[in-house]
Design a protein that fits this description.
Length: about 400
């Protein structure tokens, strides 16, 4: 029996290679988004799409992962036709199914004791894949319903070998292609009803150019406190080619900023960084109004990204020097306290930093949020006094404003 796969998180490689055809399959799903016309043009000929291997629509938002769940009408129960299969028994209602039933009431309540999990990476044209899964419930040998999942990277259906992002129209086209291409494995209850597909995760991203020192910028931004962010750290992300990545967030979602040039091993423009929000169901619904596929539109993904951009403070100004008098004036504190605070900020900007008492530390983090700045000495090799990522131009802006701006 294959290893158990986390049904909600998926295999972690949606949109990558894998999931070869298996004996007994009705046939490999055929088709590619590149053969579907959008606004009368093939996507490969549209001016707003990137050349193969490029970064798409640098100044705009795009989607690079989407995961949805849905009720299942029928599915293939043969484990040999799936990459993974597991079964487990439970004496009580399965939590995920119970929560789904609360928002989708129907006659009867599931009290079964067997949960079967199926997972498969289904290959489309150009070796692009989408993950499909089924969670089936039964009691005493009788089926009590099933829940399905589809997860994919829509950008790879536009440009299989590239590093760009997909817009909303391209994402919806890819989703329709996938639903039709996996019907030999799973059939949704309401296939054409977009409100029947609940968004479990959506990643919205934006690329920034002209960052002279991505690692220094990340270190400067890492010291800035974020409200309700249980995670706030820099690491060399093995899933991104070891690229330095700043991650902030919680179990409801994450925001990342990383060196796209390093992640792609030099196949995009030097100085390119990618900002992305990984919104789980709670963030997607509460912040972006993205409850189902029917809610997927530019206004909603813009609302999600814009709000999380502000919250993540990744557009904060990183300064090369701090004016004690200006800081004291802005915060309304004595210069002696401002001097100690500025020393703490500088220390954190170039090393792990000394830690004051919990009360003082909380006060200093509050001061940083008020100032909206970070410190990064190494980021200013060009003699500019500050740097920030500008959301509107999607570029790094260096200027002479500093902490008094």
């Amino acid at each position: 029996m294959a290893r158990d796969v986390d049904f909600w998180d998926g295999p972690g490689d949606a949109g990558q290679r894998g999931g070869s055809p298996r004996d007994g399959d009705p046939g490999l799903p055929q088709g590619n988004l590149a053969t579907v016309k959008v606004d009368g043009k093939s996507p490969s000929n549209r001016r707003d799409l990137p050349p193969s291997g490029g970064v798409s629509n640098v100044q705009g938002l795009g989607i690079d992962r989407l995961s949805v769940s849905f009720r299942v009408d029928d599915y293939d129960p043969n484990p040999e036709h799936w990459n993974s299969y597991s079964v487990r028994h439970t004496p009580k209602v399965y939590d995920e199914w119970a929560s789904y039933e609360q928002s989708h009431p129907r006659d009867g309540t599931f009290q079964g004791n067997a949960v079967e999990s199926y997972g498969r990476n289904v290959e489309f044209a150009n070796e692009v894949t989408a993950f499909v899964g089924v969670l089936a419930f039964s009691s005493d040998g009788r089926s009590k319903g099933a829940f399905g999942k589809i997860e994919f990277n829509p950008a790879r259906f536009v440009d299989a070998a590239g590093f760009g992002l997909a817009d909303v129209d391209e994402t919806l086209r890819a989703f329709g292609l996938i639903v039709g291409g996996v019907d030999h494995l799973v059939v949704p209850v309401s296939g054409e009803d977009l409100t029947s597909y609940r968004i479990k995760r959506i990643d919205v991203a934006k690329d920034f150019r002209f960052v002279s020192s991505p690692s220094a910028l990340l270190r400067g931004l890492a010291a800035i406190p974020r409200l309700h962010a249980r995670k706030n750290f820099i690491h060399a992300d093995p899933t991104r080619g070891g690229a330095q990545t700043l991650t902030v967030g919680s179990k409801s979602g994450l925001v990342r900023l990383y060196d796209k040039f390093a992640e792609t091993k030099g196949r995009v423009e030097p100085g390119t960084m990618r900002w992305e929000v990984e919104a789980r169901e709670a963030w997607a619904k509460r912040i972006g109004g993205l409850r189902t596929i029917a809610d997927l539109n530019l206004d909603n993904i813009t609302q999600l990204a814009s709000e999380r951009w502000v919250w993540s403070s990744m557009g904060a100004e990183i300064v090369a020097h701090l004016d004690v008098k200006a800081v004291a004036s802005k915060l309304g504190i004595k210069e002696s306290e401002a001097s100690t605070f500025c020393g703490w900020v500088v220390d954190h900007g170039i090393s792990s930093g000394w830690e004051p008492s919990p009360t003082t530390g909380a006060k200093y983090r509050r001061y940083l949020r008020v100032l909206g700045i970070g410190f990064g000495l190494e980021a200013f090799l060009s003699n500019a006094s500050s740097i920030r990522l500008d959301w509107d131009s999607a570029t790094a802006v260096m200027n002479d404003l500093g902490a008094t701006s």
